[in-house]
């Protein structure tokens, strides 16, 4: 079995180190000496209020210590990774809050056998000492369609129970009232998870195996397998499957999602999902619920209760009336609770209309402006050249990491082709370059799109009043100057500027009256191509390649090669 890599000091001490690290960074939390217990640093402020204790195995961070604070938990008791906490530590936490003058203690426990046993035993011992203690067991798992003897597992919905209980305690509610209210809330809640990969406990290998094209539906938060495996499908379909399962009338642990229902939605990262994917899932969940006529009153998106590095997500739905929403919205100082907008998600406008662009003023065509047909031929030649170089440029770019330079230039070429086929060409050179700049900024993307957009925008300025060869040479200089000013690169940094600057040096000859354009442009192209080839001997000084060891960059810079190829295509287009 291959043991997973973890950033820990030791396997036995990782849970203690993690809790100590959170306390070290949060002055509002303190450790209880001799125990893996974290408590509010201002325990004196719970006098006369119900204390709230929770906990369980480590590995679910930010649960549970991240929810310690005014308006949420008073303290937590942590076990080793995926292991119930010790009875003695739970009892010590109860004693600490009791001695601080709390008006009773509520233990909020996820429904797992070890947690129920250990928290339950500590409760009985504390009661024997005269403490007023009660326990609520949270089971919000909606994976199993038939009731299990062990009941529903406690999952991410437990965090919402922490919040509701915390708001009630802060408002001065009695222990009995808090138990009644959170029990009702827990019964109107469901959670379902899906995972693309297993997790691995420090010192061990993966908890289960998944094929590359599979995902696991209905799994728990300790790496245990789910209720079924599915083939990978788009995120929208996965979310629909999850919500269908959670709300199915045949599911004994269903959430009653009737049209008109109001819910709090939690989109929970199980640990290893990218936030890009989390955003996709969150949007799909909101839209799917709204399509069913369900009102999304609040939406929480983030990592709330994880399973180490598991690449997965869980959805929690809590049926909520206005009173429950007020408790969800109540203020808390807990660091892991999000800064939640206190407004309904459903029904609000999500798109702001873009401002209208000012009208383009068509000025008289100056003498010497390029003929429309010649410009079209040049642009078509540039596009075909870039499309033909796509794989070569991608291969050159892989040495610097992402390998998408060819794809980016091909995207620009296709955008220009589409524009050529749908729009009359601007007659003025300055308008042509400005239009191309806007097109590339919108369609090309990446730093290349920004750099070409800068170049063309600046190059358009010298062409506003004239378009003779000297003006085109000045346009080249202006474009390069803008790229250097904002891009930060210079000749010799192994970028497209190496090709462009070499060409600009030759194009200065056009400033002399009567100079023939094509011979000068041919020399400029040759210089650009030679400069592009020479970049393979340069150490990158700018761009992503500057972070790569020069020993790995044995090929020419793809940006320089692309710029030289564009200049070659312009020359061939003018010669045709």
UniProtKB/TrEMBL annotation:
Signal peptide: none annotated. Keywords: ATP-binding, Cobalt, FAD, Flavoprotein, Kinase, Lyase, Magnesium, Manganese, Metal-binding, Multifunctional enzyme, Nucleotide-binding, Phosphoprotein, Transferase. Substrate binds at residues 57-60, 110, 115. One of its GO terms (biological process) is glycerol catabolic process. GO terms for cellular component: cytosol. Residues 10-337 form the DhaK domain. InterPro entries: DhaK_ATP, DhaK_dom, DhaL_dom, DhaL_dom_sf, Dihydroxyacetone_Kinase. Pfam families: Dak1, Dak2. The keyword Chaperone does not apply. Its cofactor is Co(2+); Mn(2+); Mg(2+). Its EC number is 2.7.1.28, 2.7.1.29, 4.6.1.15. Homodimer. Interacts with IFIH1 (via the CARD domains), the interaction is inhibited by viral infection. PANTHER family: TRIOKINASE/FMN CYCLASE, TRIOKINASE_FMN CYCLASE. This is Triokinase/FMN cyclase. It comes from Terrapene triunguis (Three-toed box turtle).
